[in-house]
Write a structure and sequence with these properties.
- The two termini are 25 Å apart.
- The chain has a seven-stranded mixed beta sheet, with helices on both faces.
- Helix 2 links the parallel strand 1 and strand 2.
- The chain is an alpha/beta fold.
- Helices cover 53% and strands 13% of the residues.
- The chain contains 14 helices and seven strands.
- The radius of gyration is 21 Å and the shape is globular.
């Protein structure tokens, strides 16, 4: 029974943690831009594995940005692409690094770009399906400082299915908690996996030492926070990301995320003790994040515990579970942007049950 109650207290901690950072997100103040700042030079890094169907649209989107062509370049790491796709891509003014990795990973792909980054000030890591607005680089350039690492605001590019809408809501809830909420109290923002901007004086160190096979962003976070560098969140600089629309894609994606989360929780705890990082608040907070259960599990799990506490008639824990349930509902609702709240309906809410079971399958 002790383990049973301890597990519930851990669940309650999850809810208190996200509630706290949802509330602090309301005092988040976006960085003020310097419109007269000098124009930085950029390189887009796009690690892509067999993304033949979507990569042309992405390249055309990036080439259409309103910025001096001499001040940005695009490097595509084309892993396992069809030769016909490569032939088409060669018609565009981009650099293509062709690879055929035995075991593909984002870290391997990015390492292959390191010899070609010296002329640019900043690298922007994108996924093959990411798009940006035409004024993206002008907007981004006005915020940047040397020796900083930034996470941009990733938004949904598509809202064409219930699954895509729920995926978009999940992304924005995480933006609220782990990026805006953390930045508001001076903590480091979490990375996502794309929309990452790194000054090129720092990128060689972090990319060359990243040997992850899955969980590239989590490995990168541990390296950055271990070195006492804080990741900044730029809420007003947007990268549009394709949301999953198919059950199989959702299961595969969540399975990778859950596996990476607990893998790097174990690795992070080892680093914490090996390097005695007990006063590194951002590193400890990152380990707390890695220990959290997926947000989609919080409400069902609170409801299950409430029923169990009612059955065993434990009045103290009945009260605690009601409180936990309420703060979870309030936190998640407050974290959803207004434009996505408008999309909520009974059909969409009923599909949450479907997504919950998909996330269980992902285990």
């Amino acid at each position: 029974m002790i383990a049973f109650y301890c597990f519930y207290l851990l669940l309650l901690f999850n809810s208190i943690y996200i509630f706290f950072f949802v509330i602090t997100s309301f005092i988040y103040k976006p960085y003020s831009c310097n419109c007269n700042a000098k124009k930085h030079s950029f390189v887009f890094l796009i690690p892509a594995y067999a993304e033949d169907n979507i990569i042309i649209d992405t390249i055309e989107n990036l080439l259409s940005v309103n910025y001096p062509s001499s001040s940005f370049k695009i490097i595509l790491i084309a892993d396992s692409f069809k030769s016909s796709t490569i032939d088409i891509l060669k018609k565009y003014p981009i650099q293509i690094i062709e690879e055929e990795f035995c075991v593909s990973s984002k870290s391997k792909a990015l390492k292959s770009t390191l010899p070609f980054l010296s002329k640019a000030s900043f690298s922007i890591i994108l996924d093959a399906d990411n798009h940006v607005d035409s004024n993206f680089l002008n907007n981004l350039s006005s915020y940047l400082n040397k020796n900083c690492i930034y996470q941009l605001h990733r938004k949904a590019k598509n809202l064409d299915t219930n699954l895509a809408i729920l995926d978009a809501i999940s992304e924005e809830v995480n933006n609220c908690i782990f990026r805006a909420g953390h930045s508001a109290v001076g903590l480091s923002s979490a990375l996502i996996g794309s929309g990452i901007v790194i000054h090129n004086s720092m990128i060689n160190k972090f990319i060359s030492n990243n040997n992850s096979l899955g969980g590239f962003d989590k490995e990168l976070e541990l390296q950055i926070l271990k070195d006492l560098i804080k990741i900044q969140y730029l809420d007003s600089v947007v990268v549009y990301d394709e949301k999953v629309s198919r059950n199989d894609d959702f299961i595969n994606q969540r399975s990778r995320w859950i596996n990476a989360q607990f893998k790097y929780l174990i690795k992070g705890v080892r680093i914490l003790f090996d390097q005695k990082l007990f006063f590194n608040l951002n590193f400890i907070d990152k380990l707390m994040q890695f220990s959290l259960i997926p947000r989609i599990w919080l409400l069902p799990t609170h409801l299950l515990f409430l029923l169990l506490f009612i059955l065993i008639n434990n009045k103290v824990f009945i009260s605690l579970s009601v409180i936990g349930l309420l703060i979870t509902i309030i936190a998640i609702f407050l974290a959803i942007p207004k434009q996505l709240v408008k999309l909520l309906n009974l059909k969409l809410l009923s599909s949450i049950v479907h997504v919950f079971f998909l996330s269980i399958i992902a285990l």
